[in-house]
Every structure is written in structure tokens, then in C-alpha cells.
Design goal:
nine-stranded mixed sheet, two-stranded antiparallel ribbon, alpha/beta, about 375 residues
Length: about 375
């Protein structure tokens, strides 16, 4: 049986090998991506222990790698064969371009729902699990306005602000993406099973980097937060205490060169202190979605709003300096995004927008570590 995923054709054996590669102890997303810049997963399978040792693998990792059997991964493959279940590797054409360009991007993504939505323009919205009435109102207002301007709302399905934003996006006839800190055979928290079903039913998606059977663990959620940020053009924080998990997402956004927005609150609201701290550190204070759209204006120029509130790219405007960026992307080797940005002299957000448009036009290809120019360019 062949595994059909858009332009890619992977046999079950090949897909199982990818799963095996991501399971090697101590070979996480960063080390894995570095290896994949030089060798494909299939090429690594044909290398001997001496070669792997020379590339930094220890004895435990080598033993694990050579102990490959596709049978080990049959339960995962069975999950992926179900309707609306998707399993894509970092080299897959449907892998989100924004996420691929962060350090430590997941090597594999599991998606339950609409595969297309993960490449739509997303804004992360996160906040307190126990919001005040002001926080709930702000979450509803921002979510409604962002959906009305064509954004997909991305969050973590947690209680409080996360859930309110997912629910409001659905009520506003928009789409929303929930990133889980567990495998997609589970929903955490379990009280949000119905909400998770609604997200999928209304054209959204649940996403995880964990194998479907994986149970939720505390250490999974900071990892989950980097995906929320990595998928999104920016992160909006609505009510966060000074030691809130939402601030982890905001820190990831800064590391990813994405915008961070924060909603101010009353001085005596302890749930607002994290937002105030972010504003002191340079996050943009926002009072409504218009403030966000103004900051991300270069992106919204490339979107239009269809009847289902799905952002669709327009044809690129000829007056944008795409040729300047294209000249900085090589066809014979990977060009990192920071190199492209430095050579272009443009703001990083504008560079990201134009790179996405060039990729949609088939002129460049997003790969681990940056971009390469296609033969058609």
C-alpha cells in the first residue's frame, strides 16, 4: 500500500522510518534538522556505525537506530489511515512554512482535521486559565475582530482564554487551530472534547508533535507553546500572571522574530502583570484588533476574505521588491532566513511575507534551515 499525501508518495516502510528517526533518544528536532540538511532519512539508514559515530551518535543511539522494524509503528500508521488524520514530515509540501523556519521545528506533525488550515494566516492568542470578566471580554472582542479580518485563531485548548478564543472563532464563523501537549487520541483537558470536535467539524484542526497514544505531561506544554508561536505571525497575550505559561509562548515568539502583542489591564489585576511586563519589555500595547492589523499590515495586504472567512493569497503586487529577495536565495544550497533578511535590508516581518508569497508562486522552496531557489525561478 502507498501513502498518498499531496505531492509526496511515501510507503508505510518509509513513513515508519521517519517515525523511528524521531524516536531516537537524544536526537531531538534541532539535531535531527541539522542531520537532515546533509542526509535524507533513507540515506542514514544505509550508513554504518562508524559513519554515525563520526557524526556524533553514541552507542545507545546507534543500537536504537539499527533496531528498526516498521511493525513497531503499526498503531501510529493505523491512526494516520483514518479519515481527516494526517501525518506529515518536515520535508512535506504541506508542512507550515512559518513553523519550518523556527529553530527546533518538529520533525513530524500529527494533524486531526483540515490539513489546509495549518498554512492559513494564523495569530496565536493565549492567556490566563482563570480570566477576569475583563479578560473574557477582551478574548471575545479580539477573536471576533481577527476572524473578521481573515485570521485563523491558534491557541492551546486550555481552560480560560484559550478556550474562549477557540469558541469565539467558531461562533464568528471562523477557523481555529488547537495545538495539544499530548497525542491526538486524547484531548486535554478532557472537558474540552466537545470543543475539540467542533474545531475539527468547522474546518479547523488539532495539531501535535507527539505520537497519538501519548498522554499529557507537564513537560510537554512548553514544547507545545513553541508550535503555537511558530505557526503564527504573532502572539497576542490577554491576561497573564508574571509566571504564566502564556509568557513562555511570548518568549518563543520573540525568539522566532514574530510580533508580540499584549492587552493592558487594571493596575491591581494580578492577571495583568505579565502583560504589563511584556509591554515594558517592548511588546506592542493593543486595545483592539486594528492595532494588530496595523502592525502586520504588510501581511494583510496579501490576503482577502472569502465567504467562509478563510484567508486566501492574492497575486503578488508587482511593486513589492520580490526580485531583491529572490536574488538572495541560492539554488545550489540552503539560504538561512537571517541571511536573506540581512542582505535585503528589509524588516524581518516583510521578508517573511514575501518569502511565503514566493513559495506559493513556486519560485522558492522552504526546507530545513531556510530556503532554496527552484529551477523555475
Amino acid at each position: 500500500m502507498r501513502w498518498r499525501t499531496l505531492e509526496s508518495l511515501l510507503s508505510e516502510e518509509e513513513l515508519a522510518l521517519w517515525l523511528h528517526f524521531t524516536s531516537i533518544p537524544g536526537i531531538g528536532p534541532v539535531k535531527g534538522a541539522n542531520l537532515l540538511q546533509h542526509f535524507s532519512v533513507a540515506e542514514l539508514q544505509g550508513r554504518d556505525a562508524v559513519f554515525l559515530t563520526e557524526h556524533g551518535w553514541n552507542e545507545q543511539q546507534i543500537r536504537y537506530w539499527f533496531d528498526f522494524s516498521a511493525e513497531k509503528y503499526q498503531s501510529v500508521l493505523a491512526w494516520a489511515h483514518t479519515d481527516q488524520h494526517h501525518l506529515i514530515d518536515i520535508e512535506h509540501p504541506a508542512y507550515p512554512a512559518l513553523l519550518r523556519n523556527i529553530v527546533g521545528a518538529p520533525l513530524i506533525l500529527f494533524i486531526d482535521g483540515n490539513l489546509d488550515v495549518i498554512n492559513q494566516m494564523q495569530l496565536a492568542v493565549v492567556g490566563s486559565r482563570k480570566p477576569t470578566s475583563d479578560g473574557r471580554d477582551a478574548a471575545q472582542l479580539f477573536s471576533q475582530e481577527l476572524v473578521a479580518h481573515g485570521f485563523t485563531i491558534t491557541s492551546g485548548l486550555a481552560a480560560g482564554i484559550d478556550a474562549i478564543c477557540h469558541q469565539t472563532a467558531l461562533q464568528s464563523r471562523g477557523r481555529t487551530v488547537a495545538v495539544q501537549g499530548c497525542g491526538l487520541m486524547h484531548v486535554y483537558p478532557s472537558k474540552h472534547k466537545s470543543l475539540a470536535g467542533q474545531i475539527i467539524g468547522e474546518g479547523g484542526a488539532l495539531i501535535s508533535e507527539f505520537f497519538p497514544q501519548t498522554l499529557p505531561k507537564a513537560e510537554h506544554f512548553p514544547r507545545r507553546n513553541r508550535i503555537i508561536s511558530g505557526l503564527s505571525l504573532g502572539t497576542l497575550v490577554i491576561e497573564a500572571a508574571e509566571k504564566s505559561g502564556s509568557l513562555i509562548t511570548a518568549r518563543y515568539a520573540l525568539e522566532h522574530n514574530r510580533e508580540v502583542f499584549a492587552v493592558p489591564g487594571r493596575a491591581n489585576n494580578i492577571n495583568a502583570r505579565g502583560c504589563h511586563r511584556l509591554i515594558q519589555q517592548g511588546a506592542k500595547l493593543v486595545c483592539d484588533a486594528a492595532d494588530i492589523i496595523e502592525e502586520l499590515g504588510v501581511f494583510t495586504q496579501l490576503m482577502r476574505h472569502d465567504n467562509k472567512t478563510s484567508p486566501i493569497f492574492e497575486e503578488a503586487s508587482s511593486d513589492l521588491p520580490f526580485s531583491r529577495l529572490l536574488d538572495n536565495v541560492r539554488s545550489d544550497e540552503v539560504t538561512a532566513i537571517d541571511v536573506i533578511t540581512a542582505k535585503s535590508g528589509l524588516p524581518v516581518q516583510e521578508v517573511m511575507t514575501e518569502l511565503i508569497t514566493l513559495e506559493l508562486e513556486g519560485l522558492i522552496l522552504s526546507v530545513p534551515g531556510g530556503y532554496v531557489r527552484t529551477r523555475s525561478a
